[in-house]
Amino acid sequence: MNTFKKAVASAALISVTLSLAACSAGAPNTADESYDIVASFYPMYVLTLNIAGGIDGVTVSSMSDPNMGCIHDHVFSTEDLKQLEGADVFVENGLDLEVFNDEILAAYPDLDIIDASANVTDAPADEEEVNGHVWTSIDDYELQIKQVSAELQKLDPAHAEQYAANEKAYLEKIDALRSEGENVIAALNGTPVLVLDETLPSFCVYAGMDYITVETDHENEALSAGDIAEIIEEMNENGIGIIFVGADGDTALAESIASETGAVICTLNTCMTGDETENAYIDQMEENFKTLSDIIE
Ligand SMILES: [Zn+2]
User: Fold this and answer.
1) 173 CA to middle of ligand 1, Å?
2) What pairing do the DSSP bridges indicate for beta strands 35-39 and 89-92?
3) What separation in Å is there between the alpha carbon of 195 and the centre of ligand 1?
4) What does the DSSP assignment read for 219-275?
5) Could you tell me the fold of the domain covering 28-176?
6) What CATH fold (topology level) applies to the domain 182-295?
7) What does the domain layout of the chain look like in residue ranges?
8) What's the CA-to-centroid distance between 41 and ligand 1, angstroms?
9) What is the pLDDT along the chain (297 residues), one digit of tens a residue?
């Protein structure tokens, strides 16, 4: 009789503890059991896939079409809001690339938002505006990985160990990537370059290159003959013999400048669109190192 009572009492206690745990930390919006993570766009999706992919009870998706291009050109829509329905957390690049958080929070006041760039301090600035495309710097990308993992561990403690293990494994791969590019990066240090894609100044910062850039908004907008003449003059003054363009951008401007200056056009992956695979960032950066090794002696 006594034993029976005791068993019932402890079962009741367990069920109270469980429901308390379910109510605290994260306060999921969903009635379902899974922890649903939505990333804002491609680079954040690939990053998050590495931290949270393949964990039972955790889903990772992208709010926007992965091959849409940059989120900062994106007009936020009701379709986007729908993608966030039932989500527990939104992972964003931050640094003003996603400018629609107010709209998201108005619709989903309980949604947690992770700013991946919270600890990034060396974002380049164009005309006093911060250039938030920092993931092309491996240093900054590592900070983003650590930040997303740390925040997920806090918000979803039930899967904290798995996030931490995945983070460790991904950082090891990123370290290997860094080593692969070491010689190329060392050779590029101090090299002057003209950059015609907004995602690539951060790569130049990482490589210690001296860069000049043209405000392009990812498109090589038609520049006047005067603008082009000015760029060419600046290139000559600074001894710039390399032009960086993004693989998903237009090369017409680069070609016309190259034809006047004899500069070499170097087409680099921006890790802003591509395969929806875990290794996409690493694959694209590896390819960049190969491309760059061809232009240095
Ligand atoms: Zn952009």
Assistant:
1) 26
2) parallel
3) 14
4) S-PPPPHHHHHHHHHHHHHHT--EEEEETTS--HHHHHHHHHH-PEEEEE--SSS--
5) Rossmann fold (3.40.50)
6) Rossmann fold (3.40.50)
7) 28-176, 182-295
8) 11
9) 333 333 333 343 344 333 333 333 444 454 578 999 999 999 999 999 999 999 999 999 999 998 888 898 889 999 999 999 999 999 999 999 999 999 999 999 999 999 999 999 999 987 778 999 999 999 999 999 999 999 999 999 999 999 999 999 999 999 999 999 999 999 999 999 999 999 999 999 999 999 998 865 565 567 788 888 999 999 999 999 999 999 988 888 899 999 999 999 999 999 999 999 999 999 999 999 999 999 886
